[in-house]
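Summary for the steering committee. One of the milestones for this cycle was to obtain a three-dimensional model of the protein with uridine-diphosphate-N-acetylglucosamine bound, which we needed before selecting residues for the alanine scan. The sequence and ligand used are listed below.
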Amino acid sequence: MSFYLVTGGAGFIGSHLTEELARRGHRVRVVDSLITGKRRNLDHVAGVEFLEGDLADPAIAERAVGGVEYVLHQAAIPSVPRSVNDPVTSHRANVDASLNILVAARDVGVRRLVYAGSSSVYGDTPTLPKREDMPPNPLSPYALQKLVAEQYCQMFTRLYGFETVTIRYFNVFGPRQDPGSPYSGVISLFATALIEGRQPVIYGDGEQTRDFTYVSNVVDGVLLACEAPKAAGEAVNVATGGRISLNGLLDTMNGIVGTNLKAVHQPARAGDVRDSQADITKARTVLGYSPRVGLEEGLRNTLDWCRAGRA
Ligand code: UD1
């Protein structure tokens, strides 16, 4: 049994990590500001220690890391458009808080910190799929913030010998992703629209593509990164290696729900990336990762969860 801290553990991805760690019999502490996370996301997980607080306050970061062996740093304001509208608030959450947790974790001798990086750091690089050795090209404050914190992680490994691994997430989806804001992930918004019989919104022509990744695949990748001997100091894509357009996604989801709702098109979003698809060769070799749940199975699970929430 090991002792893990999950920052942002009451959020979407953080709560799935917390659940799996508890299931494996580990001790888990969660720190969450509850700005976007929700206490109820952890109601079904027994034995989790919960600390409410904002990691942008260094004193909270110090309290959070006491006694911990591994830190899974998920806390963030994970939205491109929100960062475009309010870069200062999202910088505080995505950069200041990350630096605070790195310093605190280093100082108490945490074994390894695994950081929730983002595919958005690639921007519109012309080559697909995106490999970790391509030069980053952030197109939004969010992408830049994710890159800065990732580079802080790598620098902490080089400069202080503190082991960090960045997992670059690609459009993660699944149960507990909150559809309650215009900044929510597109699959959560499409799912609620179709179930409620409303037309979903597509920004732009809908031919932009994404490597949508079911959340359990990300949990696999992050937990492998805690132990993988050659991962320290690395940034690694965790995704499926495929891609689908938003129009294709909507067709697939309409097929599963049994609806035929057409999208309402609105202008493309500022800071939006056109195409995103991961090369997962490095994840396979460095982490021993392979995606276990495909898009369609993941969509079915997600839609079942959304329907149950409305039953
Ligand atoms: C980006 C990042 C991702 C990050 C995520 C956090 C990229 C490639 N990925 O995702 O790493 O974790 O932000 O939010 O930059 N859309 C619609 N209708 C909607 C909502 C969205 O058409 O109702 C479109 C968006 O314009 C976009 C796509 O769907 O083209 C996906 O949007 P979203 O789910 O917000 O995530 P990204 O911005 O791709």
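Key point for the committee: Residues 78-80, 118-120, 169, 171, 185-186, 189, 201-203, 208, 210, 246, 269, 272-273, 276 surround uridine-diphosphate-N-acetylglucosamine (CB under 6 Å).
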